[in-house]
Amino acid sequence: MFGTYFLPRDLHPAAWWVWALGLATAASRTTNPWLLGLIIAVACLVVVARRGEAPWALAFRLYLVLAGFIVTMRVVFRVIFGGAEGSTIILRLPEIPLPAWAAGIRLFGAVSAESVLGGFYDGLRLATMVVCLGAANALANPKRLLKAMPAALYEVGTAVTVALSVFPQLAESVQRVRQARKLRGGTGKGVRALRGIVIPVLADALDRSLLLAASMDSRGYGRAGVATTRARAATGALMVVGLLGVCVGVYATLDGSTPRYLATPVLVAGLAVAVAGFRAAGRRVHRSRYRPDRWQLAEVVVAASGVAVAVVMFGTSRVDPTNLNPSLITLSWPLLSWPPLLGVLAGVVPALLAPPPVLATPEEVPA
Amino acid sequence: MRSRLIAAAAAVLVTLVAAPAYAIDHSKGRPGFCPTATGVTVVVDFQELGGTTIVRCFPSAARGTGLDALKGAGFQIAGVQRWGEGFICRVENRPSAVEIIPAQGKKNYRELCIDTPPGSAYWSYWHAGNNCPWVYSQWGVKNRDFIPGGFEGWSFSLNRTADTNPWPRIAAVRPGSTTGHCDAPVEPKPTSSNPNEQAPPRPNPPPRAGGDDDPEQPPAADDDPTAPAATSTTLPPPRPRASASPTAGNPALNAAYTGGEGAPDVNDVLREQSGASLLAAWVAGAAVLLLAAAAGWIAWRRNRARQA
């Protein structure tokens, strides 16, 4: 069993998603820059070590750029719109007087270290979650994720997968067009070069979507099968009513002021109706799967490592939340205790214990 | 511009290294009541949270906001992340992030200072002229000026309604001035829902406006983010509160108080509460560098393999 464990193969995409969502959940619980930085570093290492060579794997850099943009914007907005919370003023900008109708908005003025740091911590949290999602997109094969969808969700899943793969495909498109330009000796810069890239990329996107639509059509996507109109309407109604019931039930369960009879009873009833709808929808969709992905030991290891990070963070935020949300009462280095630190480090396990991806040019096997 | 940036970075570094050490900033304000009509006395009453009430003086002759008074008297405060210091969620690190507050309708509630605290557990804001009864502030802490020679009060409101908010258990009477009478003006109520509306400047000398029959209204939550007490949409009609009597409380009935001289080091308290270790932060930094280096090395090796 262990002899074949480290043979190169693509893991089940759901395992990568569970791992990444675990990291993202952990990130959402804290504003401690040590922990957030560590989560980003862990995600980067695992992506670099275990991504394949598919186009979606190369889009990770874009997510990093997006994360940097988010952090920068948060800090810049704190500086522009009133950053004078706290007592440590680091920069005195001239305040721009605004007319009376704009009362409540402050432009520039004094900027304090506390408010800049507050913006930085807050932005870093969102940026870390974006990086985690980017890691999942880089590691998991979206097409194989679609294969693992339950039959009833197949059509929704198709739309989601097409939407998810737009970004990576654009990245690949840009890369291809730039390479072609380079081969033709096109080294222009500025607006002309932009036009030379944007138009082929857009044309490429249109071509691709037409091709995708044609191939989906020819493979029978969107067919109604043998179900009658009435049966389809009944199934649709069941699913919509069920999902509405689930939404109301979840809201009432989380919100303490809603009447209790809207909470558990509606939630359970909604779930039951939705499950009935799913079963009815699943019965009329018959799709066979070619070589379905198997959930093996490596998948368990990867998913467990992500879940462990989230669980440790939830546990510590229940025990001592102080250092998960660093206080800005007095400026000081953010504090950190051992449990959340070790918990986040558990997320690095896939970099070592996941089987390597299948590469066209395999690197030498490490000793 | 560049040198200015460097100077700013240096300032951040210096303040990070040399953070103020005490819960009470003893370089600001002075313990106890203000001895004269110059400045304002700030009273912090922890009520059900436990802890001795603290009375300190902000001896400033200039005008300033309630926030200036609180910070100028040396209190260490924290605002919620959402509203900043316009909404104070912790005074003297109370309620701390590890304290479970028995707030109604909130199981195991802890104040994390991220969003607006619930109406059942928050710091209520009061003010009073010398020899006057405490008045629940209709204005936010940044939106009104303190009364020179008067009092600013902070009292933790736990499971109270807008009508039963507890005023600080220290009578708003400076020692040695008990024979005086209340001459503080009644503050107008906010006229708009703009959270940045400022209270109009006080005329000087202050005439006694309104009178004894001036009822206190419960604060309207949507008028002012610092007044979260009344969140219900069906407010009862305004009626006089028991505290609206024209005379100040009896100083003989004051709760025990200190000037905050023995308050513990706030950074020590935080470190102790969080179980934080200095080493852990260093390890975290080292781990980030190590992981980044490992990622760089793997990327370089894969790149080389691809080119080979």
Question: Helix/strand/pairing class of chain A, anyone?
Answer: mainly alpha
Number of strands of chain A: 2
* Overall pLDDT score of chain A: 80
Largest sheet of chain B: 7 strands, mixed
Structure characterization notes:
The complex is a heterodimer of chains A (367) and B (308). Chain A is mainly alpha-helical and 367 residues long. Chain A folds into two domains: 13-156 and 295-353, no CATH class; 229-283. Chain A has 13 helices and two strands. Chain A has helices at residues 13-28, 33-50, 60-80, 113-139, 142-147, 154-164, 166-183, 191-218, 229-254, 264-284, 297-319, 338-345, 349-353, and strands spanning 89-92, 110-112. A two-stranded antiparallel sheet of chain A has the order 1-2. In chain A, helix 7 (166-183) packs across helix 8, helix 9 runs antiparallel to helix 10 (264-284) and helix 11 (297-319) packs antiparallel against helix 12 (338-345). The longest helix of chain A is centred in the middle third of the chain and has 28 residues, at 191-218. In chain A, 35% of the residues are buried. The model of chain A has no long low-confidence stretch (mean pLDDT 80). In chain B, the strands form two sheets. In chain B, strands 1, 2, 3, 6, 7, 8 and 9 form a seven-stranded mixed sheet that branches. The relative contact order of chain B is 0.16. Residues 10-22, 205-232 and 240-245 of chain B have low confidence and may be disordered. Helix content of chain B is 20%, strand content 15%. In chain B, strand 4 (77-80) and strand 5 (84-91) form a beta hairpin. Chain B has two domains: 20-276, no CATH class; 277-307. Chain B is built from four helices and nine strands, in the order αβββαββββββαα. Chain B has 308 residues and is an alpha+beta fold. Chains A and B meet through helix 2, helix 4 and helix 12 of A and helix 1, strand 4, strand 5, helix 3 and helix 4 of B. Chain A: It is found in: Membrane.
